[in-house]
Design goal:
The protein is α/β, with parallel strands linked by helices. It is built from 7 helices and 7 strands; from the N terminus they run βαβαββαβαβααβα. A 7-stranded parallel sheet has the order 4-3-2-1-5-6-7, with helices on both faces. Helix 2 links the parallel strand 2 and strand 3. Helix 1 packs parallel to helix 2. It starts with a strand and ends with a helix. The relative contact order is 0.16.
């Protein structure tokens, strides 16, 4: 399965890097392909290293203004013209999406992918990997959106919140009929 992971390129502490590396190793050992922003920096590098070291493949989609930070030894690397094209390519190249910790770029990717799913533009499973409770506030906000009628479908059909990588991967494999 090609699994797109949206996440930070920032250097983060062990609270985030250790679970990210564990999840990456699960992907690689499971024979999955990581589809990601292509960066050789921060948490993106941690995940790419983990997938590759565990035998998985890497498909990167960088963007022209970040091309200098793209991973040289990815199995495939595409350079998009801009962030909009990058997000579209990441979606096209993936079978499922995992949203890990990140900043405004990750939040932008997450909300766009959920908006597209809400409108039926894709049916791929989406997981918010809630490492160290990072997305507790967002989960509360989404629940409020559902409770107050802002979502046209149940939250559980839009996104799955996983507390760890094992739960995230199990949900994705079950959604794909691999379990």
């Amino acid at each position: 399965m090609n699994i797109c992971v949206f996440l930070s390129a920032a250097d983060l502490d062990d609270r985030y890097t250790v679970p990210a590396r564990e999840f990456a190793e699960l992907l690689g050992r499971g024979g999955h392909t990581l589809v990601w922003g292509g960066s050789e920096s921060g948490l993106m590098k941690v995940v790419a290293d983990g997938v590759q070291d565990a035998g998985g493949k890497l498909v990167g989609v960088s963007v022209d203004f970040l091309a200098a930070k793209a991973r040289a030894n990815a199995d495939e690397m595409v350079i998009a013209r801009d962030l909009a094209e990058r997000k579209a390519l990441l979606l096209v190249k993936s079978d499922a999406i995992v949203i890990m910790v990140g900043g405004t770029g990750t939040l932008d990717e997450a909300t766009e992918i959920l908006e597209l799913k809400k409108h039926g533009k894709h049916t791929k499973p989406v997981v918010l990997l809630n490492t160290a409770g990072f997305y507790d506030g967002l989960r509360e906000q989404f629940q409020r959106m559902e409770d107050e009628g802002f979502l046209p479908l149940p939250l559980t059909e839009l996104v799955f919140f996983a507390e760890d990588g094992v739960g995230a991967l199990a949900y994705l494999e079950e959604s794909a009929g691999l379990q």
